[in-house]
Amino acid sequence: MSAAGANGPSRVLVLNSGSSSLKYQLLDMADRARLATGLVERIGERSARHVHTPADGEPRERERPVADHTEALKAAADELAADGLGLDSPELVAVGHRVVHGGRRFREPTVVDDSVLAAIERLSPLAPLHNPANLQGIRTARALNPRLPQVAVFDTAFHTTMPEHAARYAIDVATADAHRVRRYGFHGTSHAYVSRRAAALLGRAPEDVNVIVLHLGNGASAAAVEGGRCVDTSMGMTPLEGLVMGTRSGDVDPAVIFHLARNGGMALDDIDRLLNQRSGLAGLCGDNDMREILARRDAGDERARLAFDIYIHRLRRYIGAYYAVLGRVDALVFTAGVGENAAPVRAAAVEGLGSLGLAIDEERNGARTKGPRLISPEYARVAVAVVPTDEELEIATQTFALVGS
Prior knowledge:
Distance between the termini: 22 Å
Order of helices and strands: EEEEEHEEHHEHHHEEEHHHHHEHHHEEH
Mean pLDDT: 94
Number of helices: 15
Oligomer: single chain
C-alpha cells in the first residue's frame, strides 16, 4: 500500500455521486496507485448494493437499505477506515468531486465554498439529473470531515475553450443569453485525459497534436481537440445532442418535438423521456448493449443491423465534420466501454475513409489488449488508437494539482 508522497500527503478521494449511486476511488498521487474502489447503487430503494475493493484484497459486498447519499458516503467511509484508509487520515489531502455542469463560469477545478455550492445549485436546471446528486455528495463529504478541501471538477470545463462560433446556437442572441442556451459539452474529464494520453502514445506534446476523440459508452460524445484545447464537441446544452447513444437519440430535428406535441398529443415530459430514455439503440432495436446488438446482427436480426448501421453512420458524419474543423488530424482515438472493447464498431467507423488517411489493421484491432495502443497500419497517414479512459484519475490529478501543495 502506497505511503504519502515525498513532499507530504498525497492521497485524494474521488467521488462520483449519481442520482441513485455513489462511486468512489482512493488514489495516492505519489505513484498514481489505487488504494481502494467502491460502488453503492440502488440508493433509496428497498435494498442497496455496496461493493468495496481494497487494492490488496478481495471485494467485499453487502446488501442493505441505504436511505440517501449521506448514508452511502458514511458506509464508504467505514469500509475505507476498516482498511486503515479513513477520511480522518492525515495522508488524505482532498476530496475530488465530479460535477456534471459548470456552465460558463467554471473553467477550472475549483475549491468548494458556500458561494461555489450556490452557483452549482443555480446550474441545476441545465443538468437536473446530475447536479443535485453531485451537490449531495459534496455536502455530505464536507459534513463528514470539515477540514478536508472539497474540489469540484466539471465535465463541462474542458469544452469552455470552444470558440463562440462553435458554442452558440443560431437563435436570437438575447433569448439565448437570458436562458443560458448554448453548447456546453460533457465527458470533458474523459476527453482531456484521453487526448493527452493519445499525444503521449504518439511521442508528442499535446500542444503539437490534433485529435478526434470518440467517447463511446452508453452515453457517447465526440470532441475535436486542437493542440490540447477543445474546439468542438457533439453534446450541446445537455448530454442529449450528438451521437446515437444507448437510450438517447442524439441529433434530431427540433421540429420533431413540436410535431409530437401538436399532432401526437404527447406532453413535454413524455417527449423528454422518449428522447432520453426510449431512443438511441434501445429505441431502434430494444437493446442498448452493443455486445447484444452485434450478436443479434451477426445472427441475421434486421432491427439490430439497422440500429448498428445508424450508429455507425452518425459516427462517420462526426469524424468527417471534425476532420474539416481541425484541418489536420494526427489521431482518431476510441475510448470508453464500446470504444475500447467493440472492435467491429471501430472497424466499421473507419471503413472507407482511406482518402482521409484513416485505416485499421485487422489484427491490431482484434487484439485483446487493455492498454493504450495503435490499431492503424504503419503506412496510415493518421494514427487510429484505442486509449482506455480514466476519469477518476483525471479528477484526482486535477484535484491534487490544485490543493496538493
